[in-house]
Amino acid sequence: MGIDTPLALYVHLPWCEQKCPYCDFNSHPLRGQLPAEEYTKALLSDLHDALPLTDERVFDTVFFGGGTPSLFPADSIKTLLESLTSAKRLADQAEITLEANPGSAEAGRFSGYRDAGVNRLSIGVQSFNDEHLSLLGRIHSADQAHRACQAAHEAGFDNFNIDLMFGLPTQTPVEATDDLNAAISERPTHLSLYQLTIEPNTAFAAEPPELPSDDASWDIRCAVQERAQAAGFQHYEVSAFARPGRECHHNLNYWRFGDYLGIGAGAHSKLTLGSGIHRWHRPRHPKAYVESMAQPSTPQIGCALETADQTFEFLLNALRLKEGFHPKLFKQRTGMDWPFESDEVQGAIADGLLYCSSEQIRTTALGWRFLDELLQRFLKP
Fold this sequence. Notes:
It is a single chain. The protein has helices at about 35-50, 75-85, 105, 110-115, 130-135, 140-155, 175-185, 205, 215-230, 250-255, 285-290, 305-320, 325-335, 345-350, 365-370, 370-375, and strands at about 5-15, 15, 30, 60-65, 90-100, 120-125, 160-165, 190-195, 235, 240, 260-265, 270-275, 275-280, 355, 360-365. The relative contact order is 0.13. The model has no long low-confidence stretch (mean pLDDT about 95). Strand 4, helix 2 and strand 5 form a beta-alpha-beta unit. The protein is globular. By secondary structure, the protein is an alpha/beta fold.
């Protein structure tokens, strides 16, 4: 544990042109002009206050998430990355990702982001079907989605992800596969394939759309996953598919229980310090966040995680990976030995949900399908 644990930086940019009805992220519809300069200043203050906690460690990855980060001008992104570079806190060959929506205005910024130092895009397409985009409350069209992917290539991005959703209202397996084929035609290096779920405190929760039945959703899931793998994408995480060597390193750090510093409204952090693993988060509302950054203040890191919480949180992340993890990684990240003989582990093995050896801990095919049920076994009351 500690200084050898990889470190990532997450930057939350919370505004969207409008709130999607399925979204439960900390995002806010933009009212009036984007306060890019004011918010960037707050981010720099946040970063400056938190960096002393990281013991001069460098960031292996940076991820600009949202919200819609591509609403921000390239100069804002450049300012933040230059601050990291001047402080010698950015690793050589660091993966730097920015989430983007396919509206034409945002796509036109791609060259600027590339020049600013971003080397990976994640484009939130969700569907290449105009009818389904409308049902999802998206404000771009299928044509704009295709043009955004083309703009990414033209701007020099040889590494980009496409987000797609499946299990949409009225969607058939053929339509879901057509969506995926459209995405594959744009030559991404990574695909994030998510099933639409109804989350609390969303517009869809208040007025739920009619989704495909469980059996139909399973057929769609299988069709999409099989097509992605047939096209040469490796299914390496529950919702993530990558060309060989193009896995998302930022997300791999989460899934391997690495450390991360989060700056921005509502951003969460996890750091391994001498006293243990600590978590904290920033104020959720952008206005409250900006006001809180007006005065220098070291983050209040609180108490270290309890042992049982560490085990559960490690598994919550690491068992999402198809390859699972080595027992040594569990030791490195938590400071504890893997509990081979515990009732929870032995019960999961006996029920065909978990595979354990001296070299690898991973779910079985059955355990991966019923991952939530498996994880519940390790959640202490």
